[in-house]
Design goal:
Length: 217
């Protein structure tokens, strides 16, 4: 299948089902708030190397965590009982996103560029991008950020400053999302870490149905 080229002059995406088998759908465009909202509301997200053209992805199988299925291992339960935790939403979105960037640059390289940071700060200012931070025994332990539209949450990146920091943040946030009636956390791509916490693949048809339901407020 071809990869579609989109223009900065028009906020538009091709049908998500036209994505290649590897999930790549389109190239080009920009990261304006309107385009990002259109993308996420159709199961599309940007992921590309800094300095390259924007690549837009829509995998045909989706890796998600259902909030009521978040897995807390026996060792994690013991760990959480030994420490005092405090979870905060939007403590400092820009700082949390930048910590995710620095962590990934150190470990494996990152797609979080200056351009991405500016774009998601703009989304945050419009009330759509959210950061989650957890404090352990009074110190910042970890967190993550993502995009929240309707009753759908799209996770982007995580960081840990202390052992299990990002895990604790995700567990607490999933429990909050369950209470608020959210349908899923979109993990975008599989990782062993997220699979161990309850992540699993669902078909595009199932995902699309949940997405339509979650956006129908």
């Amino acid at each position: 299948m071809p990869v579609y080229r989109i223009s900065e002059k028009e906020v538009f995406f091709p049908d998500p089902t036209l994505a290649r088998d590897d999930g790549l759908l389109a190239v080009g465009g920009d990261l304006c708030v309107e385009r990002l909202l259109l993308a996420y509301s159709h199961g599309i997200f940007p992921w590309y190397n800094p300095g390259e053209e924007i690549l837009w992805w829509c995998p045909k199988e989706r890796f998600v965590i259902f909030p009521n299925e978040i897995h807390v291992s026996r060792s994690m339960k013991k760990y959480m009982k030994k420490h005092e935790f405090r979870v905060v939403l939007n403590r400092d979105f820009a700082d949390t996103m930048h910590r995710c960037r620095i962590k990934r640059e150190f470990d494996e390289g990152t797609w979080i560029s200056d351009e991405m940071e500016a774009a998601y700060r703009a989304l945050h200012e419009q009330g759509y991008a959210v950061s989650v931070e957890v404090f352990e025994d009074g110190g910042l332990a970890g967190g993550f950020y993502g995009v929240c539209i309707g009753r759908c949450f799209f996770g982007e990146s995580m960081f840990s400053e202390k052992e299990n920091g990002s895990k604790t943040a995700l567990i607490a946030f999933a429990q909050l999302l369950e209470q608020q009636g959210f349908l899923f956390i979109d993990c975008q791509f599989h990782t062993d870490h997220l699979a161990s916490m309850g992540g699993r693949f669902i078909s595009w048809e199932t995902y699309d149905g949940l997405l339509r339901e979650g956006l129908n407020q």
